[in-house]
Amino acid sequence: MKIDHTLFFLFTASAFHAQVISGTVISKNENYPIPYVKIGIEKKSIGTISDDKGNFSIDLSDTDPRQKIKIEVPGYDPYQEKIQNFKSMISRKYF
Question: In this predicted model, what pLDDT tens digit does every residue of 40-51 receive, in sequence order?
Answer without folding.
Answer: 998 899 999 999
